[in-house]
Amino acid sequence: MVPYEPLWRRIRREIQAKVDAGILKPGEKLPTTKELAEQYETSGVTVRKAIDLLIEAGVLEGRQGVGVFVAGASKHEA
Fold this sequence. Notes:
Elements: H1 7-20, H2 33-40, H3 44-56, E1 60-63, E2 67-70, H4 73-76
Antiparallel strand pairs: 1-2
Helix pairs in contact: 1-3, 2-3
């Protein structure tokens, strides 16, 4: 049986995986919170939680009034 995973954690994991795989490239803009909420069939609050955690981790960067972008490669490489 697969353990329960909160949706915000799944969204965070999937975005992180896309960045790690190079599907989302540094400087690339993510879809809006509304678009991601529709894609995952959830609320904007749930999407925002995942995005905010990725911003805190330095994977993404938010630009007020512009959008959320993949951070530069040097910011999240180990």
